[in-house]
Amino acid sequence: MRISVTGLGYVGLSNAVLLAQNHEVRALDIDPARVAQVTSDQSPVVDADISRFLAERALNLTATTDPVRAFHGAEYVIIATPTNYDPQSNRFDTSAVEAVIADARRLAPRASIVIKSTVPVGFVARMRAETGYDSIFFVPEFLREGRALSDNLYPSRIVVGDDSPAARRFAELMIEGAIHKDIPVLFTGSAEAEAIKLFSNTFLALRVAYFNELDSFALKNGLNTREIIRGVSLDPRIGNYYNNPGFGYGGYCLPKDSRQLLANYEEVPQALISAIVQSNKARKDFIAAQILDRQPGVVGIYRLVAKAGSENLRDSSVQGIMRRIRARGVEVIIYEPVLTEDRFHGSRVIRDLGAFKAEADLILANRRTEDLSDVANKVYSRDLFGLD
C-alpha cells in the first residue's frame, strides 16, 4: 500500500517510520533541509528511536518537497502539519491542514485523508461539508517529544474519529506497525475524537497546574513541598506520577490545546477550563516574583527547551519567566546549545557553559542536571524529584 505523510515533525516522521516498516511511504515537507536529512537516513527531530530506525531498519520511506510525487497513487494521506494557536482569532490556525486537504483532493482524489494535526472540535465536519468528501477523519496522536516513535510502537490507545471500512483499515495499519499489539481501539464520531485530544491534553495541563499551585502554597508558607506531594500522591486515586513542580506547563501542545478547548466553550458554562489556562500565568507571575525578591544582577537561563530530550523552544515555560524579569530591568543571559544566533529576544546567548555559570548571579533551571552541580548554590529550580 502507498501512503503519503505531510509534515516531518515529531508526529509526521514517527508515523511515517512506523508505517514504512510494512508499506511504501512518501513523506512531504516544505523544508528541503528536513527532506535531505530523511533522505540521508538522519532524523531532523531529536528522537533516539526514530534515529535508530532510519539508520538501521529497511524502511520503504522516501521524502520529497514535491506534492505531486508525494500524493500520486496514495490510498491514505496523513496530515501532520502545525496548527499553531492564533491569539487574535482565539483559534488554531488550520490553514496548513486545509491547504493539504485541497492538494490531496486534487492529486489523490480517491485517498482517505487522515488528520493527525490537532484541530478544533467540529473541524472535520466542516471539511467534509466544504469538500463534499466524507473520507476525511481525525486520528489524534498521543505522543511525547523525544519519545514519539516509542509511543507509536507501544501506544496507550488508538482513537479513530470514524467507523468506516477505511477508518478501521487505518487502525489496523497502526497496530501492524506497533510492537505492542494489545491496544485499546476506539472508533468514535469525528467531533468526539477531536474532543478526546483536547480534553486529554487539558487534563495533563490541569495536573501540572495543580502540583505547581501546591508548590506555590508551600513556598509562600514555608512548608516542605516534597513531603506534601508524596503524601498526596500515595492515594492510589491520585498516583505518584506527573507531579514534579516546574515553572509552568509549556511546550507545543498543552498551552495551545488548553486555550483551544477554552475557545470551544464559548457558549457552554465553565469555570475549571479557564482556571487551568489562568493558573499557568499565575504560576509564572509567582516564580518571577520569587526570583526578583532575591535581587539578582544577572539571571542566567539554563536551557530554553520545553523538556529534556527535546529541541523544541516553542512556548517553553521558562520563557515566560524570562520575559517577566527582563521587564523589571534585570539582565538575562541564556545558555542554550540549540540556538545558533547570538541574541534571543534581546538577551545575550552564551555558548560556553563555564562562562555562563561564572557570569550569572542566579541560574534558572526548570530541571536540574549534573551540568549545574558545581554551582548548586546559584541554581533556582522547583525540580524536586529529578523527573521531567
Automatic annotation (TrEMBL):
Reactions performed catalytically: UDP-alpha-D-glucose + 2 NAD(+) + H2O = UDP-alpha-D-glucuronate + 2 NADH + 3 H(+)
Domain UDP-glucose/GDP-mannose dehydrogenase C-terminal: 300-387
Annotated Pfam families: UDPG_MGDP_dh (PF00984), UDPG_MGDP_dh_N (PF03721)
Enzyme class: oxidoreductase
Keyword terms of this UniProt record: NAD, Oxidoreductase
Matching InterPro entries: UDP-Glc/GDP-Man, UDP-Glc/GDP-Man_DH_C, UDP-Glc/GDP-Man_DH_dimer, UDP-Glc/GDP-Man_DH_N, UDPglc_DH_bac
The enzyme's E.C. designation: 1.1.1.22
Superkingdom as given in the UniProt entry: Bacteria
Sequence similarity: Belongs to the UDP-glucose/GDP-mannose dehydrogenase family.
Protein name, entry field: UDP-glucose 6-dehydrogenase
